[in-house]
Amino acid sequence: MKKNILSMLIATVMVLVTVPLAVSGANVEGTYNHIVKTILEPTLDYGYVYSNSYYTGDFTVEAGLKTLCAKTGEEVEKSDYERVKEGGEYDWGGPGSKWGMKDPSGEIIVPVIYDEIGQKVSSDGLIMVGLDVVESGRKYGFVNTNGEVVVPIIYQKVREFSDGLVAVNSGGQSVNGVFVSGKWGFVNTSGEVVIPLIYDDVDDFYDGMTIAGIDGARKGVYIVGKWGVIDKNGDTVIPIIYDVIDDQRKYTPDTFEVRVGTWQTGKWGVINSKNEVIIPIIYDDIMSGSFRDDGIVIAEKNGKWGMVNLDGEIIIPFKYGYVREFSENFAVVRIGEWDSGKWGFVDASGEVAIPVMYSRASDFHNGLAMVKTGEWWEDNEKGFINTKGEVVIPLIYDQIIGDFSEDLVVVQKDGKWGAINRKNEVVVPIIYDSMWQDDNGLLIAEIDEKAGMINSQNEIIVSCDKYSQIGGFINGLAMVRIGGEWQMDAWNEQRILVGGEFGFINTSGEVVIPIEYQDAVRAGTDDGTEYIWVQKDGLWGILAITIRNCNCVGDTHQARELGRVRGDDVITTLDALEILKYISKNETSMINKCDGAFNAACITGNDAPTINDALEVLKYLVGLPNMIGGMV
Fold first, then answer.
1. Which of 12-21, 142-151, 348-357 shows the lowest mean pLDDT across its residues?
2. Which of 112, 394, 546, 556 is most buried, by the most CB atoms less than 10 A from its CB?
3. Could you say which DSSP state residue 562 is in?
4. Alpha-carbon span 408 to 422, nearest angstrom
5. pLDDT mean over 242-247
């Protein structure tokens, strides 16, 4: 019977393959299907739970003093090495305490005999240790994970390994909390001195080179001495003749920012690793944070700021009180002082493209820039201009949040919030007490301390009469709260919401996880499933939410899912044919071994596409009655 149905369906599909039928309906970015399963009923008695997944990458939670698996709630051993302390009055150590280290299985690998030990094992498998020596104070070195001394414990100071080398100091001392004097050099992972201890200060190695200083060189509030660059053989790459040198290679290839002379009168420029000057050393200052891949830096000359490139060519003349990096080929500039000057824009040629007439200006994004007139400190007279300098959003708003990346911005006027589009049309009425836009493009609004949710067409998904709080969406779910009490937090002097009941809703406002929990913690997502810890009656349990992202067009769940079979935004009879090919194991099927097949399974909730799924497609396409009930 099944074979006959399959043959008949394929024939039907072949007849129906004509023009694709577009599916209408609201298309909220990131439409999801969620299947919620209870992994563990609320039975775990812990006062608090917080997730490690978003901070350390470990798929665990901290509960009380225990580390638990985020998926099962079972206690897990530490997945990393852990310091061990014996003796001493304080948890952090103190007089009489000794330190060692144990591995993830709990076995002691570094004996508990050291007066100090590093927090972690380096990528080279080494651990910093310190021992107090009566005659000369504490000495430092490194041991391996077998507890064997690799770098002799003879140095006054050691840093962390980088590029296979570690900076070590002999003869230095700490004065008022600042380490001074002595000589620095470098040791390899075998404990061999590969660069002699002859420098007054050094940086860590990066990409085969590091900065080194002599003549009393020291980095602190003020940089003193002379500086240059050496390689991993200890050979001088850039002569040690500069008063300051900063390695900018992480941001702009083969560039070092240098200063010749004192802080008060010295001049700045840029050189490469061959000590060739690429930006003349003639500037009063160079904005270190302006180094980028475009090879343009912001510099100051004679008290005015401008831009220069790595060929030494002036891009923006030095006549401004402030200059910002280019964004969409325009750079914000200011003439005058911060509190009284005027702001405008120059183009890539350095010419003023938009008059310097505003009290504040932001960078261009999506062809528009927010500007302000009036006093800079007042919340008013804000709007948008385009790249021609034309006002496209009148300067009438008190506050503006966003840059039209979601086709809307949130605005405040006369103390109320709403949303406008790029034509200054009010899309969401300016009547709300607060409002912000989620990454999905949804607007979270509040009236009288009740939160609701509105889409970009001003369709109210959740009215502002039920929830006291709605959080941001992750995986198509937002945590919501009902009830609770607003209190003043004495620590940061801000109002916070305490208590209430928690649950989760989807982007359609439907309740996915019942709003009945005292607390909820999102523990992380793994292989398409998010794990959420929930608290009820003081006990914690675990929910697993299987996530299917149906990010496509459609006015029914079936239509949205089927739109992914071929990866387009329309539902066609070809989609049904693809499912049938998958069912019959036809190896020519586009989705035979791809995620599309499993997305299609959402139609009936099965674990694999079935003939029923294909029938549903045909029913949707041609408006037939329920074929499943009559044929199968």
1. 12-21
2. 112
3. H
4. 7
5. 94
Query: What count of Cα atoms within 13 Å lies in the side-chain half-sphere of residue 203?
Result: 19
- pTM strictly above 0.70: yes
CB 364 within 8 A of CB 328: yes
Residue 380 · residue 371 · CB < 8 Å: no
Burial of 200 (0-12, 13-18, 19+ CB in 10 A): buried
pLDDT band at residue 413 using 50, 70 and 90 as cut-offs? very high
217 neighbors 200 (Cβ within 8 angstroms): yes
- Please report, as a single letter, which amino acid is at residue 386: N
Residue by residue, DSSP assigns 41-82 as EEEE--S-EEESTTTT--SEEEETTEEEETTT--B---SS-E
14 CB burial (10 A radius; 0-12, 13-18, 19+): exposed
> DSSP string spanning 103-125?
-TTS-EEEEEEESEE-SS--TTS
- Tell how strand 469-474 and strand 477-482 pair up: antiparallel
Question: From CA 528, how far away is CA 545, in angstroms rounded?
Answer: 8
| The two three-digit tokens of residue 454, written as one number | 């509105």
Whether residue 348 contacts residue 365, with contact meaning beta carbons closer than 8 Å, is answered with no
624 has pLDDT over 60: no
Q: What are 367-407's pLDDT values in tens digits?
A: 999 999 988 888 889 999 999 999 999 999 999 998 887 78
Calpha distance 605→601 (Å, rounded): 6
Q: Quick one: DSSP state of residue 608?
A: S
SS (H, E, C) 473-541: EECCEEEEEECCEEEEECCCCEEEEECCEEEEEECCCCEEEEEEECEEEEEEEECCEEEEEEEECCEEE
Q: What does DSSP assign to residue 24?
A: P
What is the pLDDT confidence band of residue 93, given thresholds at 50, 70 and 90? low
Q: pLDDT value at position 67?
A: 83
CB 206 within 8 A of CB 189: no
What are the residues facing 149 on neighbouring strands? Answer: 143
pLDDT of amino acid 149 = 96
Tokens for 431, please give them.
């009547």
- For residues 570 and 584, is the Cβ–Cβ distance under 8 A? no
178 compared with 525, residue with greater pLDDT: 525
Mean pLDDT of the chain: 82
CA dihedral 53, 57, 63, 68 (to 10 degrees): 110
Cα–Cα dist 14/441, whole Å: 39
Write the CA distances from 531 to 390, 478, 544, integer angstroms: 50, 14, 5
From 302, 342, 297, select the one nearest 324 (Cα to Cα): 297
